[in-house]
Amino acid sequence: MSERIGMAESKEINRRQPLLLLLILIVCCYSPWQITSAQKRITTLPGFDGPLPFSLETGYLEVDEEKGVEFFYYFIESESNPEKDPLMLWLTGGPGCSGFSGLVFEIGPLSFDLQGYRDGLPSIFYKADSWTQVGNIIFVDAPVGTGFSYSSTAEGYQTSDSQTVPQLKTFLYKWLDKHKKFKSNPLYICGDSYSGKIIPILTLEIAIDQESSHAPFNLKGYLAGNPVTSSRYDFDSRVPFAHGKGLISDELYEVTKDVNIGHILEPSCEFHSPRPDYIRIKRDEKGYYDEVPLCDSGLPLECRESRYLLSTFWANNETVRSTLGIRKGTIATWHRCNLAIPYTYDIPSSVQYHLMVTNKGYPALIYSGDHDFDIPHVGTQGWIRSLNFSIVDDWRPWYVSGQVAGFTRRYSNNLTFATVKGAGHTAPEYKPKECLEMLQRWISGASL
Length: 448
What we know:
By secondary structure, the chain is an alpha/beta fold. It contains 12 helices and 19 strands. Helix 3 packs across helix 4 and helix 4 packs parallel to helix 9.
């Protein structure tokens, strides 16, 4: 009897084996997001000729387990001394602008070849005036919905200033846990534009953790370029800025509507998408437009926005996505700046956080392009004056290659302010050489 039972059990097991194997394959291999390895080392990129001359890693880190929020990042090791050089977390503005925008248009070692573009996949080339010459830089897509960062739940996409800060702190904890060799490197929280609202708050949170526990941080300071801080200073300063630049009288402020607020000397270009695969480019003040096919050599070379379009062509290419390790089904269309994310602006001002963090002794570098009409330097100087710090080194020019690169003032509490002459929003995009020199001097402790 027991033998017959054993034979029956054996037959049943054999009958079930194909089904069990199928279930195992489904459990192990299937995910609605088709999740692959979280980190990926990249040695070549589509559009780049030859192997990359620097170390690039991409990856995802979960920053909210309950809501399934995953931040995507690009990490480039220092091209000088990665073991000793600072570790810098770079936050791009928006909110909703990808860390890739910071990488290729601002401080990273890659750039698009707009002059040589014809059609198809854009070419990219090495840029020597990169902040990776002196630092290890993490470019993160934050908040959720930015770049390739995503949520597996609808609730996860509902985000805000106050939610982004702890998620970024979680990101840093997890990133350092996976990259332990960088725990002792000097850490700087960096970024520009709207991230100026987030940077001092995140820096303060990290400072508190560092002082009260065995947190894996070696925080040394922070920097913010063309930073959003408070509408009272940022936007209310546009009239006096425009008046001071000779653009308008105070009474005629509305006349400046056709001025490029990113850089007042550059043409104002407006792109629209009236039908699939085409864009409309504004040609004159009367509202006339030219239609240009996407991925076409007709992109206007005088428009900075044309380079931004190249990043859209590049990042939405399937070969590029595969190379970067992007999880299929997570982001349908990549946007350089996704300004449609459901975001709540629940921290009206970060001025008090600048005060609290510098009171703890952490150095700060605040810089502005002096032709930026979006976040004018006069407004930034206004909120810095409101901190009532004494002046240590008064207003003076600073130089690069024997030429005036801008003007600077140093305050007590180790706060340095600098303008970058001829730069717009944001400064490194217009003056990469000068901004790299500014960074090198500041992190070394030298005066500008």
